[in-house]
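call fold(seq) -> tokens
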Amino acid sequence: MNESTPINFFAEIQARAEPFRHECEVRWIASFDTDAHREVYLEGVWEKRGEAVAKQLRADVWAHMKSTGMVVVPQQENLFA
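ret:
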């Protein structure tokens, strides 16, 4: 039986909030003025949260920038790697 407790309630909220937090962070990083600023931020993410998170953020930021027309897609796929 799935008992409703405050711990279960807050765990469910946190699980639902994480994708939204990630989406907000992607939009925020994409809004940086230069690729150099994005790279500095992503280096900090790499150090604090690990390689996998930094790589996923980089890929998601790039996809967001392409999909919203924030960047003209060059011949190479990874503009700020």
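Helices lie at 6-30, 35-49, 51-67.
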